[in-house]
Fold this protein.
Amino acid sequence: MNILIFIIILGVVLFLIYKFFIIQSDDLNKFTPFYLKQRVLDDREQALFINLKKQLENKYIVLSKVRIEDFVGVKNDNLKKNEHFGLRNRIKSRHVDFLICDLSTTKPLLAIELDGTSHKRYDRKERDRMLNKIYDDVNLRYIHIKVGDDFEQKAEDIKKELEVAGSDIVGEPI
């Protein structure tokens, strides 16, 4: 009798698991709220990216749209759990437009923000001030390049600055 009850329960469980996966699979095939964007960078970002790659490709890695949490961490020392998560939340969904890293070590050397008209808004100015403070705190150099600047010249200037400073580039913004 016990084996019959076991077989019935096992059958019901397997049926429910099967139904759950079929329903889940059918729902995903019917509708998805996601789509693939046609490009990662807009025209202005692409133009700066091309110039940076051309100037820096032999010694540096040029990364675009990197999450700040991927290169800045939050220390656990002397922080309550909610404080740690609060600080982490400030950076986890934000990105930097470009991050220049040492080619051999991937050490972050320079953060670059491309400032368009949105950077004139109050909320963006506050965001930029917060991120500039974070970059200062972790000794990461950063620059803001305005849309409309000569990207070729800016890329050359960045290359020269990186070569002068070497791989130990830290401190004040360029």
About this structure: The radius of gyration is 24 Å.
